[in-house]
Amino acid sequence: METTGHPRPGKTETRLSAVILAILVMIGAGVYLRQSHINPAVVALRPEAHRHALPPDLYQAALIDTKGSRIAPFSPPERFDPDTLYEKINGRADLYLSSGFVSLNTQRFTMDETAGNWMELFVYDMATPENAFSVFSMQRREGARTDDIVPNAYRTENALFMTHGNVYLEIIGTDASEDLQQAMGLLAQVFVQTHGGTTAARVLGADLFPEDGLAPESLQLITANAFGYEQLNQIYTCEYNIDGTRLTAFVSERQNTEDASVLSVEYQQTLLSYGATVVDSSVSVDSATVMHFFDTYEIVFSRGRYLAGVHEAGSLEAAKILARRLAGHLEVSDGK
User: Fold this and answer.
1) Exposed/middle/buried for 125, CB within 10 Å: 0-12, 13-18, 19+?
2) Which residues, in sequence order, are CB contacts of 94 under 8 Å at separation 6+?
3) What is the pLDDT of residue 145?
4) Can you tell me the distance from the alpha carbon of 103 to that of 107, in angstroms, rounded to the nearest whole number?
5) What is the residue-wise DSSP string for 188-234?
6) Strands 167-173 and 159-164, sheet pairing
7) CA-to-CA distance for 203 and 136, rounded, in angstroms?
8) Is 223 within 8 Å of 99 (Cβ atoms)?
9) Interval 70-96: pLDDT, tens
10) Residue 89, SS3 per DSSP
11) For 143, which DSSP code?
């Protein structure tokens, strides 16, 4: 009687299967042994591998001297110039390059008792304090909390940002742990102490705006192409709340009264050329022009050596109130 189904494997097939199984077992054992002996080159890249055997020259070349603290450098410093900046911060380089960027020095630091936790220090030389403040203010994070290390400083969950003289400084950590936050503060403090102390720190442009209605931490400096217009540079802006309306005031200190007046006229002409219309509305501010532009109002005037105004206001009445306050404040400032 014939049987149905699959035929039994022969002796040859059985032996071949046994050989293949043995080979697979040997490969698995080799992989296991290989994983248990990590390549020393890989270990050397880990922060914890550097904690107790740092070469002296790494400390000597460190951007910040951390000897005697829990913080140690674990990578050599790197330097980037205008031609190579994109290699480090591709996607953001244009902001720095258009704001007077000179160089960037970076280095990573770790904590000697915390495995895997490290932070990277970014030191941007922006040539002038104004340039440094500009990139700081233009990138300020929403909801960030102010830090009192220097007047221009704030923190996020895992980073610290500040300006000091012509330097814009960032310290970015791998996590939001309290230890790492403390280490960031220590790095920043040492940097300040070794770069002129607190006397080098000041808030630029803060005295240009009246305090009534001012939104805290809204001060910005636009170094070029403010509001999309090429002729506007070195423009400080601040946000205000007037009778529930959010407004933007702007001020720029020029070389003299004539420069401020000429720039005011040029900016008005530019707006008119793009379709703005002059609004016949009294502002009680000498030389002020009120324009209606794409459902918003623009007020532009000069006061002494200052160009000033209110930008893209949704309420004409609120804009007029702010323009009067701003003009009165600048009149006092210009008389000092």
Assistant:
1) middle
2) none
3) 87
4) 14
5) HHHHHHTTTGGGG---TTGGGS-STTBPTT--EEE-SSGGG-TT--S
6) antiparallel
7) 12
8) yes
9) 888 888 999 999 999 999 998 889 999
10) helix
11) T
Q: CB–CB of 299/289 below 8 Å?
A: yes
What structural domains and CATH numbers belong to the chain? 47-200 (3.40.1000), 206-334 (3.40.1000)
Phi, psi of 244 (to 5 degrees): 85, 0
Q: Are strands 306-313 and 296-303 parallel, antiparallel or unpaired?
A: antiparallel
Q: For residue 39, what pLDDT band results from cuts at 50, 70 and 90?
A: very low
Residue type, 195: H
The DSSP code sequence of 11-30 is HHHHHHHHHHHHHHHHHHHH
Residue 28 backbone dihedrals phi, psi, to 5 degrees: -60, -40
Torsion sign over Cα 271, 273, 276, 279: positive
Least confident of 44-58, 159-173, 196-210, 316-330: 44-58
| Contact yes or no for 43/53 (Cβ under 8 A) | no
Residues in CB range of 78: below 8 A, 6 or more apart:
88, 105, 106, 107
Three-state DSSP at 279 gives: coil
Residue with tokens 């990578």: 75
How sure is the predictor about 310, in pLDDT bands with cuts at 50, 70 and 90? very high
